[in-house]
């Protein structure tokens, strides 16, 4: 056995308590924001995941001194000596994560130049960066495409801009925020993403001295300031990790208290969880999710930008839907190719049909996006163990859930991808009473 695989004996409910950590989709960006400060920043509740380590490596290459605090998950980031990194060293980070694109604005402000390696992240669609590059050009950046990344300069500095995003992209909104805060003059961003992690990033930037106001209808105003200081901040909890463990509790007919989760950011997920037939109790220190017995019910879900049902939640939930009585439909409107993970579930006995051009009937005639896909899940179908390979982060977690739900033994390989976004998931499985063999 290698440390990249796990053998799971399924069919046992998950029961117990685990804690979620800070969000991958905030902590990594907060680390980049530290580059903008004149003084060191302290970030708490940082998850021990590989995406965080990738960003730490890139920051270190640019001269940021990173030290760990006494408490688990506390990081101090000192940007006093930011410097240009060697392109060859940066190249080593190519394909590792999506976060490097957010270094553009901060490095242009600090150094007047930036080299960004080719991006990684989950392969769930084309994931272009045109909105990022258009916004940066609006601020005054000059961008050159190189064989292994992009190089940027700003010979005349960066100036506030009027930007309207064609779609409320999370990354492009963060790009604009991280660039506008130190740009000269005002920036108006329209059609911005307003995910809770973006609001948390805005809180961090405000602590640093930025002036940012969130207006109705996805408009954000930023008044550039000449300098920013460091921040002290506790990262918002990871909504995706929380929803994943909740889905695991439901699919395995279990009962899991997920500590550190707050209701407000989970509202849309909680509604769906209840409609499917799961139950939950909100406490001050977390949310308990359980399967109350009886049949699960089918649902129709459309993934969307916040406050809609997040695309990252659909993959874990699909496993629970294989156990619902009747036909569920998921319309995926955020990414054009996010159902690849269902092949493994079908191999395990699920009845799932993917419609690559979307599904259009009397209830849904109009496509919201050109590339929509849909999956129809008909249940309940018993799942049986199989050898399966993790395709991407959330798909990988859904494979773990499927193996935990299935009767018999499954071997899940390529586990490393799951460490990109789930801290200590093996230990958490142990805490919840899962039956498995894993050798680190
Ligand atoms: C590290 C991180 O925070 N990842 C999250 C972030 O990804 P990420 O920030 O990459 O996702 P975006 O919100 O930018 O992407 C949404 C849509 O916009 C399109 N698009 C985006 C940028 C661009 O320049 N051009 C373009 O066409 C994408 O192809 C996609 O169809 O938000 C997604 C949507 O909530 C989540 O699934 C990811 O977990
Ligand atoms: C798609 C995801 O992440 P990334 O943008 O880092 O690939 C995710 O977290 O599910």
Automatic annotation (TrEMBL):
Stretches assigned to the Enolpyruvate transferase domain: 9-429
Keyword DNA-binding among UniProt keywords: no
Top-level lineage group: Bacteria
Gene assigned in the entry: murA
EC number(s) reported in the record: 2.5.1.7
Single biological process term from Gene Ontology: UDP-N-acetylgalactosamine biosynthetic process
Main location: cytoplasm
The protein's name: UDP-N-acetylglucosamine 1-carboxyvinyltransferase
Reaction(s) the record says it catalyses: phosphoenolpyruvate + UDP-N-acetyl-alpha-D-glucosamine = UDP-N-acetyl-3-O-(1-carboxyvinyl)-alpha-D-glucosamine + phosphate
């Amino acid at each position: 056995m290698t440390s990249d695989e796990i053998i799971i004996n399924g069919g046992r409910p998950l029961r117990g308590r685990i804690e979620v950590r800070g969000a991958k989709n905030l902590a990594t960006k907060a680390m980049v924001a530290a580059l903008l400060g004149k003084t060191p920043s302290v970030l708490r509740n940082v998850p021990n995941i590989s995406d965080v380590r990738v960003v730490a490596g890139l920051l270190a290459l640019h001269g940021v001194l990173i030290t760990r605090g006494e408490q688990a998950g506390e990081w101090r980031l000192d940007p006093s000596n930011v410097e240009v990194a060697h392109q060859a060293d940066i190249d080593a980070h190519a394909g590792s994560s999506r976060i490097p694109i957010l270094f553009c604005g901060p490095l242009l402000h600090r150094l007047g130049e930036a080299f960004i390696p080719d991006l990684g992240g989950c392969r769930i669609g084309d994931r272009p960066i045109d909105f990022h590059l258009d916004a940066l050009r609006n601020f005054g950046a000059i961008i050159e495409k190189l064989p292994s990344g992009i190089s940027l300069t700003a010979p005349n500095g960066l100036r506030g801009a009027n930007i309207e995003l064609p779609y409320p992209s999370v990354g492009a909104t963060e790009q604009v925020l991280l660039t506008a805060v130190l740009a000269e003059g005002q920036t108006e961003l329209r059609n911005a993403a307003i995910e809770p992690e973006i609001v948390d990033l805005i809180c961090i930037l405000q602590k640093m001295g930025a002036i940012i106001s969130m207006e109705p209808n996805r408009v954000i105003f930023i008044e550039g300031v000449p300098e920013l200081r460091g921040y002290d901040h506790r990262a918002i909890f990871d909504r995706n990790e929380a929803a994943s463990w909740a889905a695991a509790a439901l699919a395995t007919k279990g009962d899991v208290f997920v500590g550190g989760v707050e209701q407000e950011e989970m509202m849309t997920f909680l509604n769906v969880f209840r409609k499917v037939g799961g139950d939950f109790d909100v406490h001050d220190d977390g949310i308990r999710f359980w399967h109350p017995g009886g049949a699960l019910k089918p649902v129709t879900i459309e993934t969307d930008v916040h406050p809609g049902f997040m695309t990252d939640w659909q993959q874990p939930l699909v496993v629970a839907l294989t156990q619902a009585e009747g036909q569920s439909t998921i319309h995926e409107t955020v990414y054009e190719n996010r159902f690849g993970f269902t092949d493994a579930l079908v191999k395990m006995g699920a009845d799932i049909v993917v419609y690559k051009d979307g599904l259009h009937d009397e209830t849904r005639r109009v496509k919201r996006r050109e590339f929509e896909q849909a999956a129809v899940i008909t249940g309940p179908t018993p799942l049986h163990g199989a050898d399966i390979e993790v395709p991407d982060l959330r798909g990988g977690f859904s494979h773990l859930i499927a193996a935990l739900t299935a009767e018999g033994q499954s071997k899940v390989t390529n586990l490393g991808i799951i460490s990109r976004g789930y801290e200590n998931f093996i230990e958490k499985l142990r805490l919840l009473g899962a039956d498995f063999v894993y050798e680190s």
